[in-house]
Design goal:
Blueprint: H1 5-25, H2 28-42, H3 52-74, H4 94-102, H5 106-112, H6 117-128, H7 133-140, H8 144-158, H9 166-188, H10 191-197, E1 198-207, E2 213-217, H11 219-227, H12 229-232, E3 237-243, E4 246-253, E5 256-266, E6 269-277
Parallel strand pairs: 1-6
Antiparallel strand pairs: 1-2, 3-4, 4-5, 5-6
Helix pairs in contact: 1-2, 1-3, 1-4, 2-3, 3-6, 3-7, 6-7, 6-8, 7-8, 9-10, 10-11
Length: about 280
Amino acid sequence: MPMTEPDEIFETHRRYLTAVAYRMLGSHADAEDAVQEAWIRASGTAAEADDPRAWLTKTVSRICLDQLRARGRRQENPLDLLPDVERAPADADPTVRAESADRVGYALMLVLDQLTPDERLAYVLHDVFGLSFDEVAPIVERTPSAARKLASRARDRVRGAAPRDADQAATRAQRRAVVDAFLAAARDGDFAGLLAVLHPDVEFHLDQGADGIRIVRGAEKVAASAAAFHRYATGYDFEIVELADGFAVVAIDDGVPVSLLFFTSEGEQIMAMETRELR
């Protein structure tokens, strides 16, 4: 059966809309659901709009914003992480930009997941997909000036903007130094070096997939686990990524992120670590 005009309009923009929704929600399943709901709402209406793509973008964005706000109340975190890829140029065709955005970098997604729903939406729509703040404003129910400020705050966090306070900057630099020292010692199997950066009462929560979480307590036991890291690490690449509240190490196998290691530190010592398996 041939498609109707609304069907054709929707299919023309489906990939773009799915990319927008994925950037918002960080979950392919949720993105597909949001786009499907937008189509249900748009059936017979989008074809009447002066700019169907803009109308559909606004509809999908509102659905995503509602989901993000509800997710925050339920403390959900459905983040799907994918390998980093080169972002399409700002002047590229919308379809090309959508294809690039559809495979968003995992480090960026980690940061986006820590933004408020309104910050995330303003940043994604303006900085990633090129909507004007006049277009973003009604979606977040703000003035264009307020929408600009939302995107600016998000942009600072995405870019890892330096803290304004000198003490905060020093604390962040110290946290990074602790992670660097841990990673160097773990790569070399340096037991003494690991003990030097671990608090005596450190806890290490290891994600073991279907087997659940294993907790290792105490500096010596955690150091022993981490000292075996250099054997596990053979063939892997590691990248330290900056998050809004600290740092994490991403383990990458042939371009694909396979695990994350989060750190909580105080002063020059690591208080807690947590792994998350990504495959």
